[in-house]
Fold DUF7479 domain-containing protein.
Amino acid sequence: MNKTPKQTEKTAWKCGKCGGELERGLVKASYLGNDFEVEELKCLNCGIVLITEELALGKMFEVEQSLEDK
Ligand SMILES: [Zn+2]
């Protein structure tokens, strides 16, 4: 029953690599041979994707669960 986590608009996200502006967007990821999309932060300047560990692990856990159900 998890809804979208509350977002903190006050946080100014900057790229740790080039200091560029970050924009939220869907990023394709792959885990255990399964492709899925996660909403993450991407640098508009250099294109690096910042996937938060918490979100990535949570999504991967879901994938593992769905695999076991098959
Ligand atoms: Zn950057």
